Fold each of these.
Amino acid sequence: MSDLVKRSLSLSGHRTSVALEPEFWAVLDQMAEQRSLSFAALVASIDAKRTPERPLASALRVAALMERRRPDTP
């Protein structure tokens, strides 16, 4: 895996930053595009579904993994 890449965004009115591997960012970018969402809106939807015990970075990685595991995803 490559080095981590940090991105900053606003969630619920608060600035935050998340560091993930570029491969995960690529899948998340594709997810946002396929759903016609802004990247921030995609992250907000994932954030809204996670439990407080799960870090945001972990929730984003799992969302990307689940997207790639879907049978209809290239």
Amino acid sequence: MNHRNKNNHLGRKRGHRKSLLSNMASSLIKKKRIFTTLAKAKALRKYIEPIITKSKIHTTHSKRNIFSYLKDKTAVSELFKDIFQKVRERPGGYTRIIKTGFRFGDQASFSLIELVDFNEIYTSKKIKKSIRRSRKKIKQSE
């Protein structure tokens, strides 16, 4: 029975899983979107959402707490820069997981995890209307 076992162990021991999620979280903060398997993306979402919530409080204490999770100085400084201001105003739900298909090597379900406010397609104010053009039907003479 799996009662009260809420985290996915990802087939790794605790130290390996902790460093894997830390590295993936810092990559997500730096690059704004990464491709990974669906199970890792879901585990990463549970790992990074509280970190972004902690970054709303701009103090030295919160920076040190976040550094204890990420272990990457550039990712922590990027998280507290002005470009993350949009993310901090959001009440929650900072990430989006999009399933992209299956990996060629082992057919694992592959997905894209991204920070919601950095996607230009969904957040742009200008939405282009596609113009529908149809061909004129040419009547054939009999």
Amino acid sequence: MKAVVFDVGRVIVQWQLRHLFAKLITDPAELDWFLAHVVTEQWHFQHDAGRLLADMVPERKSLFPRYADHIDAYATRFVETVPGRVEGTAELIERLAARDVPLFAITNFGSEFWQQFLPTEPVLQHMRDIVVSGDERVAKPDPRIFRIAQKRFGYAPQEMLFIDDNSANIEAAAALGWHVLHFTDAGARALEEVLAARGLI
């Protein structure tokens, strides 16, 4: 194993749409309804997969005019859905970087939001390359994004460890021959054990 490939959201940084919209909707029941019907993760995934906000936002506002301002906030305040880092992961990245282990990332992230977010997280500067689904217009778990990453990173699948919180993404990478680690509630502790066992830290 020669390189380590990270997911970003819920592995390196926290991510929840609720973090933003709890500031805008104070009633818990209304907030739950809004996140289940208006700005949902399923709808947001369209931007991850390459659809432009200029198409998504007006369309959604026409369906839910009552929440037009909230849908605008989704487009302009997205970085507020990332409240901070996942405990421990950034420290492991720093340790890997100190040993000159090649580090990369594959993230489901809308292209426009990625431009807003990237400057806010300095630990990502350790990544030699990052494949962003919105730029490629293909998102995990589609096997195509892993093939794009393999070509860009320059390593065979069996030479890379891929870390992701989503089991479907893990299964897709494993089916292509990648080493994988499902990032669960054990989080950075379990990751540290795997990296140590592989002699990477």
Amino acid sequence: MKSVLLIGLGRFGRHMAAKLQELHHEVLAVDKNEERVNEALDLVTHAQIGDSTSEAFIASLGVRNFDLCVVAIGDDFQSSLETTALLKEQGARFVLSRAARDVHAKFLLRNGADDVVYPERETASWAAVRYSSDHIFDYIQLTPDHAIYETAVPPAWVGKTIGQLGVRQRHNINILAAKRGEELIPIPGGDYCFREGETMLVLGADRDVQKFLHF
């Protein structure tokens, strides 16, 4: 379990708070808007109303005691930048800041952020890949050129084993798992036989997976 300071309770901040709680981390959430704080009380361990651009307020939070500080402010870049800088000045171990554009990320990284996240860009990229193909159900980009895809098993593969199909040799992709409803079969061997209605998780270069998906 980690201790997390989460500043900003807009949509991104609330979603992150909910996921952190699900992962059993201890979260102190902060926002200057009282209504947002009240709405998040059931999502976090503690919540506080305060202005994160105030040096005195940031100092009062004891930021050195948190494993992770997240600046989730999305509607006011100046406040996000000031908050990021103040957190680092007060000795924050790791600061993750939300960015909307590359220029924002550049300034945030120069002023104390250890890393940045682009929620809108990442969601847009995921949606573009997910909904531009009839066979993709999920997608995780690992590098600019490689990703993991959850995709349908081609009808021609049903009743055949991975070894018979020569998947890696013919398509240059690796099958990480097969899925039957909620059941996950990790790292299936060469004798694994595909069944109708299954999906699979494949890892490969984007160009190879996209070529394979035209079945």
